[in-house]
Amino acid sequence: MLKRLTIENYALIDALHVEWDEHLNIITGETGAGKSILLGALGLLLGAKNETQATKDIDKNCVVEGTFNIKGLGLEQLFEDNDLDYDDEIVVRRIITPAGKSRSFVGDLPVTLATLKELGSHLVDIHSQHQNLVLASEEFRIAALDTLAGNAALIEEYRRHLATLTTLRAEYRTMCAAMETARSDEEWLRYTVEELRAAKLKPNEQAETEAALHVVESADRIGEALTTLRNTLDAEEVGALVMLARSERELAALGEHYAEGAELASRLRSVVAELKDISATAEQQAERIDADPEKLQKLSDRLNTIYSLEMKHRVESYDDLLSKAQAFEARLATIDNSDTALKEMASRIAEAEQRCRVVADSLTAARRGVAPMLEEHITSTLAMLGMEEARFVVEITPADSFTPMGMDSVAYMFCATATAKMAAVERIASGGELSRIMLAIKSILAEKRALPTVIFDEIDTGVSGRIADAMGAIIARLAASMQVIDITHLPQVASKPGAHFVVYKSDGRTNIRRLAKAERVDEIAKMLSGSEITDAARKQAVNLLR
Fold this sequence. Notes:
By secondary structure, the chain is of the alpha/beta class. The chain has 19 helices and 15 strands.
């Protein structure tokens, strides 16, 4: 329920503050007084985009603030999901700077415009004249049935399954496109894979082959170096090993009386042992190193093969070549396994379609179950509104495919007289008839959705007299169980019991005030007779108010 509304520096409004009644609130005023401005400010508070210059004074912020009682509306989870502090009474504030930038707050916490809009949808339902056109929207027609049937959980489940199905279908299309592209290159790809397989590339092979080739190419120099080393170590009489062994023996003999000599002898034994090992290794290496032309050619050919493949596939390193070979193998495997993969994906899609269809069938059954109730309610309401012969039928037919709302096509069929041919309501109904039908729909939906506040913006357009009085009675009946704000030009509606506000201009600025009981008589009399209030009009106003 909207308890208070404060507007500052918006369009033609300097500042106004309204305390609302918890049931029926009537708003009247001359054309151009600013009733639409009031609704525009409320729309901003509920998350509407700021599509016009909101600020009247370009040096000040535009501020719209509303206090709402949300006790019992079940919004605790919404607040938790958006990290907001829940309270039974909340203050919602929207600020528009002179530069057009928007800031929104719930309590003292800033929120995004999307969050504000989501919250606003749970607080107020605004029905304006142009909303009669929503009858042309199949989404609205289906949503009305879903509201009556309480299909929220089913709709959520269906949309989860539909999202999965949509994703799978997109993946299937991508797979098919990839398969088509791959198959167009299949011949080249098979040749390339066979060529790389024939090369039998191994990890680190290029570096190892290059190192081996360098050794073979340098075999003579290496052999000479090893021979020189062995001669230096093992030459008779003058070899390093012979001379060091001799020194080691002499120092060891002196060790009895010369302790340092014994230590040096021990160290020399270690050196001699290491040098002997070096000599043996050099001998072994010398035997292995050989300037083998055949081996040289074999290593050169192998490297040429590797270098040629790297150039052919435009890679910067041997590792990149291995990676590319693996990628080619994977692409070829995809082609070879494509039929199996596509069959598996098709099976998954069929399963997802079945899940969607099961829930869609449940939605259809639920909608068909409440359609007679909607037909009866609208027909009886239209009869109250002077259309005793009107007929209203909900047609539910299977849709050609899955839609965001299920697998139903829903039409509202209507005729105003018993002899007229039925047709889609949006095609055949006049403006006044649309207003009455929308009031009937809104009245039943408002009760089912338990909205705390419903705003009717001249929903009574196109009706008058007894019908206007009946429309006012329906609005008043709604207000008995919920808050209703009704903007009207009809005295029959304005006279219903409730709080009566008048919107007026003063010095070119829009204002609003609540009327006292006596003032209501003059306001309704003015609506009956025009700017000059007659005694007859005043008398009729008194009768209406009674």
